[in-house]
Design goal:
Helix content is 50%, strand content 15%. By secondary structure, the protein is an alpha/beta fold.
Length: 267
């Protein structure tokens, strides 16, 4: 499939989704959102893709919403405005619920929706020159659709500060508050991303998808008998699968499990 504002590349078992609107710092408009949503849904159906990396062409990861698009949305009817915002929310959900592990490769600015994209990914690797912000209040707006993912990443207490002040967050601060997992100098950013990819390819793909579901199921839940039952059911289902049997057999026989064969051959 061809895209106007995206580039989709696949290298072995890794799909790279490049935001490709560099002259506007990869800002969102309706087309960008629709293309991202379509791309994520397509990747979710692909068994030959083990890892998804989201990145930006040009000087920035993403500056968030295109201000001209936001201005037009604000002048639309309430129904049109809500439908437009829902498309953004659904795109972020599609990213957050991909079965594959996702990595945000962040350089330059990741403001507003760009910070939302980085937060919706499972892992965020940032260049030391990266800057994040939930900048919406300075435009008279609120970070509504990105809020579930940003709050998941940094917690409500940190969100209380940054949602209200719209301060810029350096890469080092991003790591301190849990937004970025790793930071690297610009020239080493791809090397760091590759290190995480290599680690991910050692895990079973079904086990990783199940682990992502587990995090969603358990997060912010109180410890009670129902949660105990749900987690017991979860592991019982997972260990009955062929992948678990393969993994345990391989470990006990001191062999590599079958799912690593492709990645080993490609390295």
């Amino acid at each position: 499939m061809s895209y106007q504002f995206l580039q989709l590349e696949q290298h072995d078992q890794v799909a790279y989704v490049w935001l490709n609107r560099p002259e506007l710092h990869n800002a969102f408009n309706t087309t960008v959102i629709e293309e991202l949503h379509t791309c994520f849904k397509t990747l979710n159906s692909r068994d030959d893709v083990r890892v998804v990396v989201l990145a930006g062409r040009g000087k920035s990861f993403s500056a968030g919403a295109d201000l001209n698009w936001m201005k037009q949305a604000g002048q639309a009817s309430a129904e049109e405005n809500e439908a437009d915002a829902l498309k953004l929310a659904q795109m972020l959900e599609a990213l957050a619920t991909l079965k594959q592990p996702t990595i945000a490769r962040v350089h330059g600015i990741a403001f507003g929706g760009g910070m939302g994209l980085a937060s919706a990914c499972d892992i965020c690797i940032a260049s030391t020159d990266a800057k994040f912000a939930t900048s919406e209040v300075r435009l008279g707006l609120a970070p509504s659709t990105i809020s579930p993912y940003v709050i998941r990443a940094i917690g409500a207490r940190q969100a209380s500060r940054y949602f209200l002040t719209a301060e810029r967050i350096s890469a080092h601060e991003a790591k301190q508050i849990g937004l970025a997992h790793e930071i690297a100098d610009a020239e080493d950013l791809d090397k760091k991303v590759q290190e995480i990819i290599d680690a991910l390819l050692l895990g079973g793909p079904h086990a990783q998808a199940a682990s992502k579901q587990l995090i969603q199921m358990v997060s912010n839940q109180s410890m009670n008998n129902e949660l105990l039952r749900l987690t017991a059911q979860h592991i019982a289902q997972v260990r009955q699968g062929s992948e678990a049997k393969e993994g345990l057999t391989a470990f006990l026989s001191k062999k590599a499990p079958a799912w690593t064969s492709n990645s080993n051959n490609n390295n």
